[in-house]
Request: fold
Amino acid sequence: MSNRSAVPAPGFDLLTDVMEQVRLEGAVYFSAELHAPWAVAIERRGRAPFYAVSAGECELKLGARGAVRRVEAGDFLLLPGAAPHAVRSGPGAVVVPFDDWLRSHPLDARGRAVHGGPGAATRVTGGFFSVDPLRMNPLFAALPRLIHLRGADARVRQVLWPTLQLVEAEIARQGIGAPTVLRRLADVLFIQAVRLHAESEQVAVGWLRGLADARVGRALLLHQRYAEPWTLDRLAREAGSSRTALAVRFRELVGEPPMAYLARWRMIRAANLLHGPRQPLARIAEQVGYGSEAVFAKAFRRITGRSPGAWRRLASPPPIASGAPVDEAAPATAPQTATRRGSSRLAP
Reply:
């Protein structure tokens, strides 16, 4: 048995470790003053929308038959998986597709739109995160279709709204370096929202719950020591569990066996290294726990659907849903602009 402790080293934050492997390729911001009645349907694959309601109230409906969520001033909404939804003033409003609505209500030079109507006004600051393509990150599988943070929660007011105020100020000011500031604030906003959700009591059984489980939480030391030569037997010993008990509990909470989880996490780290400063492939393989470049390349292709070299050449890799293979012949897409302002259309 290893003489290392099964408890992660002091100062190691597992949630931070996972979130640091999330890459927000860009963010598009907008603000709107909406006078009832109004209703907009949004479906933006690969773009995770968020809405901060600063005044008034509205409703959000997930999908065609989903539940309706009442949203009040001070609330913040994030849809991590870009689930189709509609935002509306109330159930009687005529729903208009987002692109059609945007053509009728173009954004001004400051990214602001106004919807006229006889009813009460709702003010919203929002946008779309262009989330990294590495959807095999365990964080995405653990997040719900909708994160709804209530403005009545003191933590939301203290943590999230100061960042949103900075976003609004940068959009309005349009000063030198604003795109860079807004890009960095997008990272902060996303991480703050996920962290507030993770700290809430609404977290369902899953990866985030696994962090709090004694047995699985100890086994997730894989994150800190992912390059070591793990076996299920060794992991069970260090987690203070039997092999069978650990395998069953890990799969129950995390959704897959420990060794499969480790392989995916190694590939997440490797994929980000491949898009960092150029290193020899053998060096990257070694950093993520593979003594053989050939074995590493085979594992990388199996999990991501592409060879390490092909992945490295992509300017912006295609989405990988739950680690499913992608089309090797698919063309690379251009990197997303960090912030688009003064446009009459938000990019799809």
